[in-house]
Structure formats: C-alpha cells, structure tokens
User: What shape does this take?
Amino acid sequence: MAKWGMIIDLDKCVGCQACSLACKSENNVPHGSPHEWKRHQDLYWHKVIAVTEGEYPTVNTQIIPMPCMHCEHPPCVNVCPAKATYQRGDGIVMQNFRRCIGCRYCIIACPYGSRNFNFKDQADEEYDRPDLPPDLDLSYVGHIGPWPYPRRTRGVVEKCTYCFHRIDQALEKGVDIGSPDGVVPACVEACPAEARFFGDLDDPESEVSRLLATRNSFKLREEMSTHPKTIYLPR
Assistant: This one.
C-alpha cells in the first residue's frame, strides 16, 4: 500500500495563501469573523505562518505553510479516548466527526497546531457550497473535481486530510495519483508557484521520492519522533 506524503519547497513558496483558500473551498471549511480571529476560534485546516529571525537591519522572514503533518507516529491518535482520531493504512490521519466527543486532547497532543475545534454550528445559508453554473468549464481540474465535504457540528475537532476523498476517488477510477500529472490535494493543485508535490513516499520512482533523494530536506520538530510525512525543502 502507498504511503502518501507532501513536499513543500520553501524556496518557491511566495506566501500567497492560495493553498489555504483552496483547502477551505474544497473541504467546506467556514470563513471566520473578526471576533473569531481575535479569540483564535477561526477554522483553518491549512495555515501559513511567518517566522521572523534576526534583528534589524539583518532580518529574515520565512514563510511556512502548515497542513497536517500526517505523522507516522501521530500523538493525536494515541490520546483520543473515543477512537475518533485514527490512521489509515496509507498513513493519512483521519477524524471521525460522529465519534468525536470534543475533549480536545488531540489538540493538546499535536506538536504542530494542526487541529481545530469547531466552536459553532456551520449554518446552511452561510457555509454550503453554492451551486455551480451549469456552463462552467471544470476541465482544468482533471479527472477528479471538488467534493462538497459535509458540514460539521459544533463541538468537534477538524483537520487536514490530504484531501483523502480525491485519493479514494482516483483509486476507484484507476486514475494516477501524485505529482506532476496525477490527482493531488487541492492545496497542491492551487499553488501558483508550483512549490508543492504529493505522492507515494514508498515508491522510489515517484516525484516526491526523487526530490528527497536529490535535495536537502527537513521535518518540523524532528526531536518529537513523530516522523511527519509533510516534508520541507529549505531555501
């Protein structure tokens, strides 16, 4: 079975946050309000943070996109008392909303801040994906189109899933998965700088494996021994 992973090239990333917007649209993640932003209650399955180093006049700002790391040894899975957080055979860490009891242990356990707690119900009129015009040309999205992720209820935890629905649909249809020409998560597809790559880490011929073999790379908080499958290429 494949082990899916993502590579983000920080030298190419321009910090435009197209990845975050694509994630929200693909997965029906609600937009936050100024009140929620101030209280850190807005939902982002995919965050883009800026890390500033040094002192004036030699200051450097590093833009770091942060989807879920989909750790090989995910601490969030181990602490969930309801077994609502689980890991698939292909390595994707998932969330069962129906089992989630909202204890937020997984949020505390995650070293990367990749999990979000839903503080309110997602109202039909505000968050439903609008009907697409019948004459809209969606050929550019390839074989797998957007999937209207169901709304979540208040009191559950949400997170990035590597757009698992795209992967599963591609497997059912016999469509290639992974960069450069196969089905990829929405954030990878939307990146205008082509700074993202997705594929099977266990396949030595995949683009992600070739990049790891020929480029320096690093993982966030490697000292935690979580072995993330979201990997970065440095500037």
